[in-house]
Amino acid sequence: MPCLPACDFATFFTTVSDPRIEQSTAHRLLDVLFIAVAGTIAGCEGPSDIAEFARTQLAWCRKFVPLAGGVR
After folding, report:
1. More confident residue, 1 or 33
2. 35 Cβ contact list (under 8 Å, min separation 6)
3. Assigned domain for 58 exists
4. Is residue 10 situated within a structural domain?
5. Per-residue confidence (pLDDT) for residue 26, from 0 to 100
6. Contact indicator for 65, 72 with CB cutoff of 8 Å
7. Buried b (16+ CB within 10 A) or exposed e, 25-59
8. Overall domain count for the chain
9. Domain of 71?
């Protein structure tokens, strides 16, 4: 198996385009992707679980992404 070069989370997702309408975005796409990936790894089973994960682990998540808009 070939060894891939290491990259950080933001670098890995730089090619993902944001399909959202700019006026209706409360969070950066990178923040949303981070919460989704972290929540999935933590065992969340859907959007409601991921939202609850983000609310309960907000301080931990902010170590990696700013989440300037908080979590609703």
Report:
1. 33
2. 50, 53, 54, 61, 65, 67, 71
3. yes
4. no
5. 81
6. no
7. eebbebbbbbbeebbeeeebeeeeebeebbeebee
8. 1
9. 37-72
Q: Is residue 23 part of a domain?
A: no
pLDDT 10s digits, 2-59: 666 667 888 888 899 999 888 778 888 999 999 999 999 999 999 999 999 999 999 9
Mean of pLDDT values over 51-72: 92
Nearest Cα neighbor of 67 from 19, 33, 24, 22 is: 33
Q: What pTM, to 2 d.p., does this model score? A: 0.82
Distance from C-alpha of 68 to C-alpha of 70, rounded to nearest angstrom: 5
Q: Is residue 47 in a domain?
A: yes
